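Hey,
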Amino acid sequence: MALKPVTVSQLNEYISRVLTTDPLLGNISVAGEISNLKYHSSGHVYFSMVDENSKINCFLPSSCFNRLNYELGDGLEVVVHGYINVYKKGGTYTLFVRSIEISGEGNLSMAFDLLKKKLDREGLFDAKYKKPLPKFPRKVGIVTSETGAAIRDILKIITTRTKMVDVNVFPVLVQGKDAAQDIADTLDFINKNHKDIDVLIVGRGGGSTEDLWAFNEEVLARAVFRSEIPVISAVGHEIDFTICDFVADYRAETPTAAAEKAVPNDEILQNRIDELIDNISSDLKSKVLYSKTLTDRYADNMKLILLNRIDRLFHQIEQNYIILKENNPLNILNKGYSVLENKEGRVISSISELQDNSTYILHLKDGTAQFTITKLSKEGE
Protein backbone atom coordinates (compact mmCIF):
# COMPACT_ATOMS: atom_id res chain seq x y z
CA MET A 1 0.00 0.00 0.00
CA ALA A 2 1.44 3.38 -1.04
CA LEU A 3 2.26 5.95 1.58
CA LYS A 4 0.17 9.03 1.86
CA PRO A 5 1.61 11.87 -0.28
CA VAL A 6 3.39 14.72 1.54
CA THR A 7 3.81 18.30 0.48
CA VAL A 8 7.09 19.67 -0.79
CA SER A 9 7.45 21.76 2.36
CA GLN A 10 6.88 18.70 4.52
CA LEU A 11 9.51 16.79 2.59
CA ASN A 12 12.06 19.56 2.95
CA GLU A 13 11.23 19.88 6.63
CA TYR A 14 11.78 16.14 7.11
CA ILE A 15 15.08 16.21 5.24
CA SER A 16 16.16 19.20 7.39
CA ARG A 17 15.47 17.25 10.59
CA VAL A 18 17.37 14.25 9.28
CA LEU A 19 20.38 16.35 8.30
CA THR A 20 20.56 18.37 11.51
CA THR A 21 20.31 15.30 13.70
CA ASP A 22 22.97 13.38 11.82
CA PRO A 23 26.10 13.34 14.07
CA LEU A 24 28.45 13.84 11.12
CA LEU A 25 26.49 16.40 9.13
CA GLY A 26 25.56 18.37 12.26
CA ASN A 27 29.19 19.25 12.94
CA ILE A 28 31.31 18.92 9.83
CA SER A 29 34.50 20.49 8.47
CA VAL A 30 34.87 20.88 4.71
CA ALA A 31 38.01 21.90 2.81
CA GLY A 32 37.77 23.68 -0.52
CA GLU A 33 38.15 26.89 -2.47
CA ILE A 34 35.81 29.87 -2.17
CA SER A 35 33.93 30.72 -5.34
CA ASN A 36 31.14 33.11 -6.36
CA LEU A 37 31.45 35.15 -3.15
CA LYS A 38 28.51 37.52 -2.59
CA TYR A 39 27.80 40.00 0.24
CA HIS A 40 24.13 40.63 0.97
CA SER A 41 22.81 43.97 2.26
CA SER A 42 21.58 42.14 5.36
CA GLY A 43 25.18 41.39 6.33
CA HIS A 44 24.97 37.70 5.44
CA VAL A 45 27.51 36.21 3.03
CA TYR A 46 26.81 33.62 0.33
CA PHE A 47 29.43 31.62 -1.55
CA SER A 48 30.24 28.22 -2.96
CA MET A 49 33.00 25.84 -1.95
CA VAL A 50 34.50 23.96 -4.87
CA ASP A 51 37.12 21.35 -5.58
CA GLU A 52 38.15 19.74 -8.86
CA ASN A 53 34.90 17.86 -9.29
CA SER A 54 32.12 19.38 -7.23
CA LYS A 55 30.72 22.30 -5.29
CA ILE A 56 28.45 23.04 -2.35
CA ASN A 57 26.51 26.18 -1.50
CA CYS A 58 27.47 27.91 1.75
CA PHE A 59 25.70 30.40 3.97
CA LEU A 60 27.68 32.59 6.43
CA PRO A 61 25.41 34.55 8.80
CA SER A 62 26.39 38.13 9.60
CA SER A 63 27.01 37.28 13.27
CA CYS A 64 29.73 34.80 12.27
CA PHE A 65 31.07 36.97 9.46
CA ASN A 66 31.73 39.84 11.87
CA ARG A 67 33.93 37.55 13.97
CA LEU A 68 36.16 36.47 11.07
CA ASN A 69 39.88 37.13 11.36
CA TYR A 70 40.38 37.13 7.58
CA GLU A 71 39.23 38.92 4.48
CA LEU A 72 37.40 36.51 2.16
CA GLY A 73 37.89 36.35 -1.59
CA ASP A 74 37.31 34.07 -4.55
CA GLY A 75 40.07 31.50 -4.95
CA LEU A 76 40.92 31.46 -1.24
CA GLU A 77 41.42 27.94 0.10
CA VAL A 78 39.70 27.48 3.45
CA VAL A 79 38.40 24.96 5.91
CA VAL A 80 34.77 25.66 6.79
CA HIS A 81 33.25 24.40 10.05
CA GLY A 82 29.45 24.14 10.23
CA TYR A 83 26.46 21.92 9.61
CA ILE A 84 24.38 20.76 6.64
CA ASN A 85 20.79 21.93 6.37
CA VAL A 86 18.15 22.37 3.72
CA TYR A 87 17.28 25.69 2.19
CA LYS A 88 13.61 24.89 2.35
CA LYS A 89 12.39 27.53 -0.07
CA GLY A 90 14.70 26.35 -2.84
CA GLY A 91 14.86 22.70 -1.88
CA THR A 92 18.67 22.63 -1.89
CA TYR A 93 21.01 21.63 0.88
CA THR A 94 23.45 24.18 2.14
CA LEU A 95 26.51 24.23 4.36
CA PHE A 96 25.68 26.64 7.19
CA VAL A 97 29.00 28.13 8.33
CA ARG A 98 30.00 28.59 11.97
CA SER A 99 33.67 29.49 11.40
CA ILE A 100 36.32 29.59 8.66
CA GLU A 101 40.05 28.90 8.74
CA ILE A 102 42.62 29.71 6.08
CA SER A 103 44.48 26.68 4.69
CA GLY A 104 48.24 27.05 4.33
CA GLU A 105 50.65 29.99 4.34
CA GLY A 106 50.06 30.75 0.68
CA ASN A 107 46.41 31.38 1.36
CA LEU A 108 47.29 33.51 4.39
CA SER A 109 49.29 35.66 2.00
CA MET A 110 46.25 35.91 -0.25
CA ALA A 111 44.03 36.89 2.69
CA PHE A 112 46.66 39.47 3.65
CA ASP A 113 46.59 40.98 0.15
CA LEU A 114 42.78 41.04 0.09
CA LEU A 115 42.56 43.01 3.33
CA LYS A 116 45.45 45.27 2.36
CA LYS A 117 43.73 46.23 -0.90
CA LYS A 118 40.44 46.85 0.90
CA LEU A 119 41.92 49.12 3.55
CA ASP A 120 44.08 50.88 1.00
CA ARG A 121 40.99 51.73 -1.06
CA GLU A 122 39.41 53.19 2.07
CA GLY A 123 42.45 55.41 2.66
CA LEU A 124 43.70 53.88 5.92
CA PHE A 125 47.28 53.88 4.61
CA ASP A 126 47.18 57.45 3.27
CA ALA A 127 50.14 59.58 4.37
CA LYS A 128 47.86 62.56 5.06
CA TYR A 129 46.47 60.72 8.09
CA LYS A 130 49.90 59.94 9.60
CA LYS A 131 50.46 61.82 12.85
CA PRO A 132 53.97 63.13 13.58
CA LEU A 133 55.86 61.50 16.43
CA PRO A 134 56.73 63.84 19.33
CA LYS A 135 60.44 64.75 19.51
CA PHE A 136 60.50 64.95 23.30
CA PRO A 137 57.73 62.73 24.74
CA ARG A 138 57.10 62.78 28.47
CA LYS A 139 55.16 59.51 28.61
CA VAL A 140 55.35 56.41 26.39
CA GLY A 141 52.78 53.60 26.30
CA ILE A 142 53.79 50.05 25.37
CA VAL A 143 51.12 47.61 24.17
CA THR A 144 52.52 44.09 24.03
CA SER A 145 52.87 40.85 25.96
CA GLU A 146 54.21 41.39 29.46
CA THR A 147 56.26 38.17 29.26
CA GLY A 148 57.77 38.35 25.77
CA ALA A 149 61.25 39.37 24.69
CA ALA A 150 59.85 42.50 23.02
CA ILE A 151 58.93 44.22 26.29
CA ARG A 152 62.38 43.54 27.76
CA ASP A 153 64.13 44.92 24.67
CA ILE A 154 61.93 48.03 24.54
CA LEU A 155 62.34 48.86 28.23
CA LYS A 156 66.09 48.29 28.08
CA ILE A 157 66.51 50.69 25.15
CA ILE A 158 64.28 53.38 26.62
CA THR A 159 65.94 53.35 30.07
CA THR A 160 69.38 53.35 28.44
CA ARG A 161 68.65 56.28 26.15
CA THR A 162 66.81 58.63 28.52
CA LYS A 163 65.90 59.30 32.14
CA MET A 164 63.28 61.90 31.23
CA VAL A 165 60.42 59.61 30.07
CA ASP A 166 57.76 57.75 32.04
CA VAL A 167 56.71 54.36 30.65
CA ASN A 168 53.29 52.69 30.96
CA VAL A 169 53.01 49.02 29.98
CA PHE A 170 49.63 47.68 28.88
CA PRO A 171 49.78 43.85 28.73
CA VAL A 172 47.80 42.21 25.92
CA LEU A 173 47.52 38.95 24.04
CA VAL A 174 49.75 39.02 20.95
CA GLN A 175 48.85 35.64 19.48
CA GLY A 176 45.71 33.60 18.98
CA LYS A 177 42.13 34.22 17.85
CA ASP A 178 41.37 36.75 20.63
CA ALA A 179 44.60 38.72 20.36
CA ALA A 180 43.56 41.26 17.72
CA GLN A 181 40.38 42.22 19.59
CA ASP A 182 42.31 42.44 22.88
CA ILE A 183 44.88 44.83 21.38
CA ALA A 184 42.16 46.89 19.67
CA ASP A 185 40.18 47.23 22.90
CA THR A 186 43.34 48.23 24.77
CA LEU A 187 44.13 50.96 22.22
CA ASP A 188 40.62 52.35 22.59
CA PHE A 189 40.95 52.22 26.39
CA ILE A 190 44.26 54.09 26.36
CA ASN A 191 42.93 56.82 24.06
CA LYS A 192 39.94 57.33 26.34
CA ASN A 193 41.61 57.10 29.76
CA HIS A 194 45.32 57.96 29.24
CA LYS A 195 45.32 61.08 27.10
CA ASP A 196 48.60 62.19 28.72
CA ILE A 197 50.49 59.47 26.83
CA ASP A 198 52.44 61.05 23.96
CA VAL A 199 53.23 58.00 21.83
CA LEU A 200 52.30 54.29 21.74
CA ILE A 201 54.46 51.32 20.74
CA VAL A 202 52.35 48.36 19.57
CA GLY A 203 53.92 45.06 18.65
CA ARG A 204 55.63 41.82 19.55
CA GLY A 205 58.73 39.79 18.75
CA GLY A 206 59.22 37.58 15.72
CA GLY A 207 57.33 34.43 14.78
CA SER A 208 55.62 32.59 11.95
CA THR A 209 52.94 34.13 9.76
CA GLU A 210 50.30 32.45 11.91
CA ASP A 211 51.94 33.78 15.08
CA LEU A 212 51.87 37.34 13.79
CA TRP A 213 48.39 37.14 12.25
CA ALA A 214 46.66 39.15 14.98
CA PHE A 215 48.45 42.21 13.58
CA ASN A 216 46.91 41.49 10.14
CA GLU A 217 43.31 41.61 11.32
CA GLU A 218 40.90 44.35 10.35
CA VAL A 219 39.66 45.03 13.89
CA LEU A 220 43.18 45.95 15.00
CA ALA A 221 43.91 47.97 11.86
CA ARG A 222 40.86 50.16 12.45
CA ALA A 223 41.73 50.66 16.12
CA VAL A 224 45.24 51.84 15.15
CA PHE A 225 43.78 54.18 12.54
CA ARG A 226 41.32 55.84 14.94
CA SER A 227 43.91 56.28 17.69
CA GLU A 228 44.43 59.95 18.48
CA ILE A 229 47.80 59.10 20.04
CA PRO A 230 50.58 58.47 17.48
CA VAL A 231 51.25 54.74 17.06
CA ILE A 232 54.57 53.05 16.26
CA SER A 233 54.10 49.54 14.89
CA ALA A 234 56.87 47.13 15.90
CA VAL A 235 55.96 43.61 14.83
CA GLY A 236 58.41 40.77 14.31
CA HIS A 237 61.69 41.15 12.45
CA GLU A 238 62.83 43.55 9.77
CA ILE A 239 61.50 41.36 6.95
CA ASP A 240 58.05 41.01 8.50
CA PHE A 241 55.31 43.33 7.26
CA THR A 242 51.82 43.42 8.74
CA ILE A 243 48.64 45.38 8.11
CA CYS A 244 49.32 47.15 11.40
CA ASP A 245 52.60 48.46 9.92
CA PHE A 246 50.78 50.09 7.00
CA VAL A 247 48.11 51.76 9.16
CA ALA A 248 50.41 52.96 11.97
CA ASP A 249 51.92 56.44 11.97
CA TYR A 250 55.41 54.92 11.88
CA ARG A 251 56.66 51.41 11.14
CA ALA A 252 59.72 50.22 13.06
CA GLU A 253 61.65 47.21 11.78
CA THR A 254 61.87 45.69 15.26
CA PRO A 255 60.71 46.45 18.82
CA THR A 256 64.24 47.71 19.55
CA ALA A 257 64.06 50.12 16.61
CA ALA A 258 60.66 51.30 17.87
CA ALA A 259 62.12 52.20 21.26
CA GLU A 260 64.96 54.09 19.60
CA LYS A 261 62.47 56.02 17.47
CA ALA A 262 60.09 56.76 20.35
CA VAL A 263 62.49 58.54 22.72
CA PRO A 264 65.51 60.84 22.31
CA ASN A 265 69.02 59.91 23.36
CA ASP A 266 70.02 62.06 26.35
CA GLU A 267 73.74 61.71 25.61
CA ILE A 268 73.32 62.84 22.03
CA LEU A 269 71.12 65.71 23.15
CA GLN A 270 73.67 66.77 25.77
CA ASN A 271 76.46 66.66 23.19
CA ARG A 272 74.32 68.68 20.84
CA ILE A 273 73.57 71.22 23.58
CA ASP A 274 77.30 71.48 24.38
CA GLU A 275 78.02 71.94 20.70
CA LEU A 276 75.40 74.67 20.42
CA ILE A 277 76.79 76.41 23.51
CA ASP A 278 80.27 76.31 21.98
CA ASN A 279 78.94 77.64 18.69
CA ILE A 280 77.01 80.43 20.42
CA SER A 281 80.07 81.31 22.52
CA SER A 282 82.26 81.36 19.43
CA ASP A 283 79.72 83.49 17.57
CA LEU A 284 79.51 85.93 20.48
CA LYS A 285 83.29 86.22 20.66
CA SER A 286 83.46 86.85 16.93
CA LYS A 287 80.73 89.48 17.14
CA VAL A 288 82.40 91.18 20.12
CA LEU A 289 85.74 91.22 18.30
CA TYR A 290 84.05 92.54 15.17
CA SER A 291 82.24 95.19 17.20
CA LYS A 292 85.50 96.19 18.89
CA THR A 293 87.18 96.44 15.51
CA LEU A 294 84.36 98.63 14.24
CA THR A 295 84.50 100.71 17.43
CA ASP A 296 88.27 101.17 17.17
CA ARG A 297 87.95 102.02 13.52
CA TYR A 298 85.16 104.46 14.28
CA ALA A 299 87.18 105.98 17.12
CA ASP A 300 90.20 106.40 14.84
CA ASN A 301 88.03 108.03 12.22
CA MET A 302 86.46 110.33 14.80
CA LYS A 303 89.87 111.23 16.13
CA LEU A 304 91.07 112.06 12.64
CA ILE A 305 87.93 114.10 11.94
CA LEU A 306 88.35 116.04 15.20
CA LEU A 307 92.05 116.70 14.55
CA ASN A 308 91.28 117.94 11.06
CA ARG A 309 88.58 120.18 12.42
CA ILE A 310 90.91 121.54 15.13
CA ASP A 311 93.55 122.20 12.47
CA ARG A 312 91.02 124.10 10.40
CA LEU A 313 89.93 126.13 13.44
CA PHE A 314 93.54 126.95 14.32
CA HIS A 315 94.20 128.01 10.75
CA GLN A 316 91.10 130.18 10.82
CA ILE A 317 92.19 131.75 14.09
CA GLU A 318 95.61 132.47 12.65
CA GLN A 319 94.03 134.09 9.62
CA ASN A 320 91.78 136.19 11.81
CA TYR A 321 94.74 137.13 13.97
CA ILE A 322 96.64 138.34 10.91
CA ILE A 323 93.64 140.34 9.76
CA LEU A 324 93.15 141.83 13.23
CA LYS A 325 96.81 142.56 13.52
CA GLU A 326 96.92 144.27 10.16
CA ASN A 327 93.90 146.33 11.08
CA ASN A 328 95.07 147.20 14.58
CA PRO A 329 94.65 151.01 15.03
CA LEU A 330 97.98 151.12 16.84
CA ASN A 331 99.72 150.08 13.70
CA ILE A 332 98.13 152.97 11.90
CA LEU A 333 99.28 155.37 14.64
CA ASN A 334 102.81 154.04 14.32
CA LYS A 335 102.81 155.19 10.74
CA GLY A 336 102.32 158.85 11.83
CA TYR A 337 98.59 158.96 11.84
CA SER A 338 96.46 160.09 14.79
CA VAL A 339 92.87 159.62 15.93
CA LEU A 340 90.67 162.47 17.11
CA GLU A 341 87.73 161.84 19.43
CA ASN A 342 85.20 164.06 21.15
CA LYS A 343 84.50 163.88 24.89
CA GLU A 344 82.02 161.10 24.34
CA GLY A 345 84.69 158.93 22.60
CA ARG A 346 83.24 159.25 19.12
CA VAL A 347 85.88 159.41 16.37
CA ILE A 348 85.90 162.66 14.45
CA SER A 349 86.42 162.01 10.77
CA SER A 350 85.41 165.36 9.27
CA ILE A 351 86.17 169.05 10.01
CA SER A 352 82.48 169.71 9.90
CA GLU A 353 82.09 167.73 13.08
CA LEU A 354 84.32 170.14 15.03
CA GLN A 355 82.88 172.99 17.06
CA ASP A 356 84.37 176.12 18.67
CA ASN A 357 85.09 176.04 22.37
CA SER A 358 84.74 172.28 22.44
CA THR A 359 87.19 169.87 24.05
CA TYR A 360 88.66 166.92 22.03
CA ILE A 361 91.14 164.10 22.62
CA LEU A 362 93.93 163.36 20.20
CA HIS A 363 95.43 159.86 20.13
CA LEU A 364 99.05 159.57 18.97
CA LYS A 365 101.37 156.56 18.86
CA ASP A 366 102.99 157.41 22.16
CA GLY A 367 100.07 158.92 24.11
CA THR A 368 97.02 161.16 24.10
CA ALA A 369 96.50 164.91 24.29
CA GLN A 370 93.41 166.89 25.27
CA PHE A 371 92.76 170.31 23.82
CA THR A 372 90.05 172.89 23.29
CA ILE A 373 89.34 174.62 20.02
CA THR A 374 88.86 178.37 20.60
CA LYS A 375 88.53 179.34 16.99
CA LEU A 376 87.85 177.02 14.13
CA SER A 377 89.09 177.89 10.66
CA LYS A 378 87.47 175.97 7.86
CA GLU A 379 88.73 175.52 4.31
CA GLY A 380 88.23 178.71 2.23
CA GLU A 381 87.88 181.06 5.18
